Fold each of these.
Amino acid sequence: MTARTLFEKIWDDHVVAPESADTPAILYIDLHLVHEVTSPQAFDELRARGLKLRRPDRTLATLDHSTPTLPANADGTRPYANAEAQAQVAQLETNCREFGVELHGWDSAERGIVHVIGPELGATRPGSTIVCGDSHTSTHGAFGALAFGIGTTEVGHVMATQCLLQRKPKTLAIHVDGELPPGVGAKDLILHIIGHIGVDGGTGHVIEYRGAAIEKLSMEERMTVCNMSIEAGARAGLIAPDETTFAWLQGRPRVPQGEAWNRAVAHWRTLKTDDGARYDREVRIDASAVRPTVTYGTHPGMAIAMDAPVPAARNAMEQRALDYMHSRAGQPMQGTKVDVVFVGSCTNSRLSDLREAASVLRGRRVADGVRMLVVPGSEAVRRDAEAEGLHEVFRAAGAEWRVPGCSMCIAMNGDLAQPGQLVVSTSNRNFEGRQGKGARTVLASPATAAASAVAGAIADPREYLTEAAA
């Protein structure tokens, strides 16, 4: 038998009809994740055509993008940013009732960001195909799943058929050799990788992250890495499942139980690239060379170590980015004044991310003039964080502790920065105006975000973490 990559094994297992020169392959979808922003038109299309949802049991919905992260008002109403946001939420509630979709809404103890609750519930499983009308569906690739974002029209296709037309992507192996230095984490690593290969480095490919440094990452850290695969232009990002994966999933509500669990794990252990399998491209990264990394421009590929000089613009587009961000070529980002700090999003809102930020903030105060928001990724994360007293650490430092949601990542729920303000954010995109009209975004790790909040300027978290350890 021909040696195959991890991606090829999953692809082959899910192709209903192979592609030809004229037509894409038909790919079966195991799990369809749904939220309130990209689904209304798809449900309307089902109604217009008189169609039922093909597999309600393989569809899972939540409220996250438009939901306010402030607590409910005294009368029980929610402080929505505007009527449109409230209408989106109400429409998804209506659609899920009508079509029989499981919805984790306001009354659910499991509600949260779609790419946080899927793994928490055990709905995300190795070897499966997962789609969602959201770019960062690649998060689920951390479990050895083929997961990618789709457009609203495709959302309708999956609802109606549980299948998608897809051209087979190429494969890109990113080998991360060695070990990350102390105080350097998964967010620094993925920003370093994207800075190295560029925002188009993965275009047309599915990335498989491999190597000793990847194997040492926790599941939360693997999710951070895979989450940002789309920011390198990739269709998806994958990490082969291993004992870390199985231990994290065991006992979760939607995974097999008992003997069925043992059979599932036996199959999942086969989901790794065969010896001798060939990738279309391969890249090697030295983990020991990664330092606390931030962005300096207006896309994630404009990333450097915070103490390195900002590169000179090579073209008009890069110069516009430097001008927008007020970044100066030849000067490091470290020391740049900060106005707002955001810890949250599907990239960095899990319990380990909050612990990382709290380890810097404990016993310290957010600098005068800096606003800091900490938004857990789910109700489960919020419960666990509060059980550990992390919310009290954040509040004692002067940060705002919020209700779960996408929040300032996309700033469509009322959590946004003002024109000209610089935001150090643990999210995944730093486009112009992404976090509010005229707002300037610097992507960073939770530790860097917390250190910057304390310093009032972009700061190296290793100094604070060393003090905390001492």
Amino acid sequence: MSNAELAVSYAALILADDAVDITADKLQTLIKAAGIEDVEPIWTSLFAKALEGKDVKDLLLNVGSGGGAAAAPAAGGAAAAGAAAEEKEEEKEEAKEESDEDMGFGLFD
């Protein structure tokens, strides 16, 4: 991670710990107050948009948890949708393989 990413991450954690909404302006204010000058505004905007409407404390508590509804918000919408699609594909493949076995013949018969 670069210093800019770390600075924005820590600023987001500070705001979350104080139960303050995470916005790009608030992140930038904290970073400037800390005396860190090399952070481009794009980083604060990206972090603010990524964490918008999310409970950062909940994200930290659910890191590495198994599948299920509790992990979906932590993984993000696209990642969760991709994982669900992969599971469905695997189930379809397994069902297809089972149905081939039920026919009484195989590839080398």
Amino acid sequence: MQVAKESSFRMDSSEAATKLETTYERVRLLASGNAVVVFTISSCCMCHVVKQLLFGLGVGPTIIELDQDKAGREMHAVLYQLAGDGQQPVPAVFVGGKFLGGIETVMACHINGTLGAWHRVRSKKDKVTGRNMYGVFWRFA
């Protein structure tokens, strides 16, 4: 049996920082790539609640299942830093590329009525298809 050297598993601090920055950039690009993005774990019941709430409101969010993504652990670490104050990092809801929050924030907004209406807004024509593109924006009451 061959045992890998311990040093092969270590990353120096600059490598770790670079990997974290790359992962942060990936999370940022995913979050800003669609109107509503939810980072979840497929077996998480609170993630299921947030997804059902959004679907019930007529929103079709982009869902990123961290346990199905090969960089899921790294993205989970980035979300943990974004959540802060000991909050659970998933579900993590982004609206318009901005971090809205997790289950507590989304449910609080829904209960107190500040979880605004979703609006379809006509934007410009797609250059490839020639069809009108539609976007969704978030409005707080």
Amino acid sequence: MSSTSQKHRDFVAEPMGEKAVMALAGIGEVLGKRLEEKGFDKAYVVLGQFLVLKKDEELFRDWLKDTCGANSKQQGDCYGCLKEWCDAFL
């Protein structure tokens, strides 16, 4: 990933804590609401799914598309954000 958004940089700069799902790069208000409706209300809940899928990019992107309708860019942004966070904090 050659460039990242400010949202991405802010997210990976510190522990996740109780951040809302919309704090994740690639997840805005519309996708955030869809995720919340399916029980993924916090960033750490999405992280849990990311880890259950063994940090596999293809599986996670497919899950995000199927769960909230994320497009390819949104999937990539969210995956990259969680991967970088895991590399820094796990």
